[in-house]
C-alpha cells in the first residue's frame, strides 16, 4: 500500500512568474518570490518552461532565438552566459512558432519551450532558481514578452539534505556575425569545473533565419566536423548539419562524460546568407557539494 503521507508531500507543484517585458539591449529578472515556495520547503525542480510572445514582421527573427536567459541557484551557475532559449531545449510548437495574423504585414509569434533538466535539481528551503532574461540590441521588435514557470515536486521539510546535487550546465558556441567559417574555442563547448560533466545532448539553432526557413538545420552547404580535446574524431569528415542534428528536435542525444577542463571542438563552414549565426550548445549536468 502506498505511503499516502509521503505521496502527498512529494506532490507536484508549479511556480509561475508574471509575464515580463524585455526591451532590446536590456535585461530583466523574473519575480523570484513567485518562483519559490512560500513555506520554505525544499523541492525537486524537474522542468523549466518558457513562453515568448512578439508582434513582428513575418520576415524577421523568431522570438525564441531573440530571447536569451541565464540561470543561477545560489553560488551555482546553470549557464555561463545569456543563451537563446532554443539552445536549452527544442521548441514545442514547431516551424513558424504559431504565427497568427489578420493582415499581411504583421503577426503575433508565440514560442513555447520546455526544458526537462538532465537530472532533477535539488532546491534547498528558502532558495530559488533565478531567471534573468536578455534581448540583444537591434532586434525587431524592440521588445518581447516572456513567461517562465518551474515544474517541481515538494519533499519533506525534515528530509536529510543531500551531500551532493546534480546541477545542470549549458554553454554555447556562436560563430562571429557575418563569418563564413567558424571554429569553437576553449571557452565554448567546455567543462570549466573540477568534476566530470555528463553531457546529455547537443542542440543546434539558427538564430538569423527568416520565418520561411526558420528552424532548418539540414543544408547542403552548412557542414561541420567535431573532435574532443584529445583530437579524437567525433564527426570525422565535413558533414551536413542535418545528418548530425535530428531535424525534428535540432538535437543530438550524446550521453558522454566530459572530463574536467576538457572541451569539444567544432568547425563550421559555408556560413552564408541566413545561416551566418548558427549556434551549437551542449546540455549536461555535474555534481556539486552543497
Features:
6-stranded antiparallel sheet, Jelly Rolls, 5-stranded antiparallel sheet, 290 residues, 19 strands, mainly beta, 2 domains
Report on this model:
- It is a single chain.
- With 290 residues, the chain is mostly beta strands.
- It has two domains: 4-154, Jelly Rolls, CATH 2.60.120; 164-289, Jelly Rolls, CATH 2.60.120.
- 5% of the residues lie in helices and 47% in strands.
- The protein is built from three helices and 19 strands.
- It has helices at residues 4-9, 63-66, 241-244, and strands spanning 12-16, 20-23, 26-29, 43-56, 68-73, 76-77, 83-84, 99-100, 107-123, 130-135, 143-154, 164-173, 181-183, 197-206, 223-228, 233-240, 251-258, 264-269, 278-289.
- Strands 1, 2, 4, 8, 9 and 11 form a six-stranded antiparallel sheet that branches.
- A hairpin with a 4-residue loop joins strand 15 and strand 16.
- Residues 1-7, 95-105 and 209-218 have low confidence and may be disordered.
For this entry, what is the oligomeric state of its chains?
single chain
Q: What's the total helix number?
A: 3
CATH fold naming of the largest domain = Jelly Rolls
Unreliable runs, pLDDT <50, ≥5 residues? 1-7, 95-105, 209-218
In short:
This protein has 290 residues and is mostly beta strands. It has helices spanning 4-9, 63-66, 241-244, and strands spanning 12-16, 20-23, 26-29, 43-56, 68-73, 76-77, 83-84, 99-100, 107-123, 130-135, 143-154, 164-173, 181-183, 197-206, 223-228, 233-240, 251-258, 264-269, 278-289.
Write the layout of secondary structure elements.
Blueprint: H1 4-9, E1 12-16, E2 20-23, E3 26-29, E4 43-56, H2 63-66, E5 68-73, E6 76-77, E7 83-84, E8 99-100, E9 107-123, E10 130-135, E11 143-154, E12 164-173, E13 181-183, E14 197-206, E15 223-228, E16 233-240, H3 241-244, E17 251-258, E18 264-269, E19 278-289
Antiparallel strand pairs: 1-11, 2-11, 3-10, 4-9, 4-11, 5-6, 5-7, 5-10, 8-9, 12-19, 13-18, 14-17, 14-19, 15-16, 15-18
